[in-house]
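On clarity, I found the account of how folds are encoded harder to follow than it need be. What matters is that the chain and its backbone geometry are given together, residue for residue. I therefore recommend that a typical entry be quoted early in the introduction. An entry of this sort, consisting of the sequence and the corresponding backbone structure tokens, reads as follows:
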Amino acid sequence: MLRVVQHVDSMHRHLNNCPVSGIQWAWIYSRPAPWDREPIMALEIFKKLPLGGVDRRSLVTQLAERGPSAARELLAAQRARVKPRGAAIAPDTAVLILGGSNGITRALAVQLLFGERAAVVGVHYDSEKMQIGGHHVAAMKEAAASEGLVCEFWNRDATREDTIEEVIATLKGRFRAVHLVNGIAAGATKRYVEHGPTTVMDVDVAFDPVLQIPDAANRAAYRQLGLVEVEVATDVEIERTNKFMGTSSLLWAEPLARAGLIAAGESVVAFCDYDYEPNDPVYAMGPLAGAKLLQRETMKQIRERFGVRTVRVCYPAVCTTALGAIPGGLAMFTISAQILKERGEYQTTEELGAASVDLWREPLPESELRLDGAYQRCLPEWHRRKDALTEENFPGCFEKLFDGSPI
């Protein structure tokens, strides 16, 4: 039985020592004699650029012209689909989201506001000129105000002491208690020095220049199947990743508790997690994994010190700006999305955000809320299809993503 092996970690060093004009080989071999192999195709190394390589000048212009209307239109469509899920959130409490301007945490904010009628406060960190997040926030605030709902956001670095102090000062006196959901995604998508640099297979997909997510439902947006380089993280990058994605929940929980806004036995402190495979060449071997492990440890401290329920919310690979920046991330998403759509188990970002309010629904989750069950079950098939993916069957193997159903 012959199979294609796309740069599993045990072969990275061998392949990286055999460059051919910027191209590296994928190999075919028989199981009984793994040394008896011959190159059958070459995958080019492509540069994984921010937002898929969208021209910055064009981005600024398009965002200024179309950003506000695109954000309003998307929110209007989602509000039409929102239904209450019965989250038990007291009316004198608020949900504080670190993030909330895009991706899953934005979808959660939409569900909390328009489905559960809960007060939402968010701290995001977006460029007003170059990122859609500010427009999403403006659209949510406008819609919430029209319905008499509480929706407030700060566009600040959520790890700065002055930001934390200002937000908590605003919350104190207005709310009896606060729930905290940490969705910060600001880490080095690189590897630790002991693992060294490598390359991984990825799918090059153009981004929507306004919504700034991979245009994965558009066949014409698929540019190539290739390899991307994964560099080694510096000490500064590791420290920054740990600060943003490792200890940031504790940075907020301590002053919230001092302000009397953490209610023992009621408040929930949650963070958005990804349960990566132990041999993932990017996630498991670099600062992203280190920060996640640190976050889990700090959540344990928060639970023990403040008597609150702490929950890591585990998500599958989703079509977001953040995932598009991770080497190999779009290969992970596109292949798994195809499998899950075939099985009738695919969940959109909007659906995952809505399902996240199960944090406040009976039976109340303790320590984990798994929204990635179907995704985890599909991983053996994901590996099989990844090994079989070639330039010849790309992107035709993603037909379910092009059927017009939501991504």
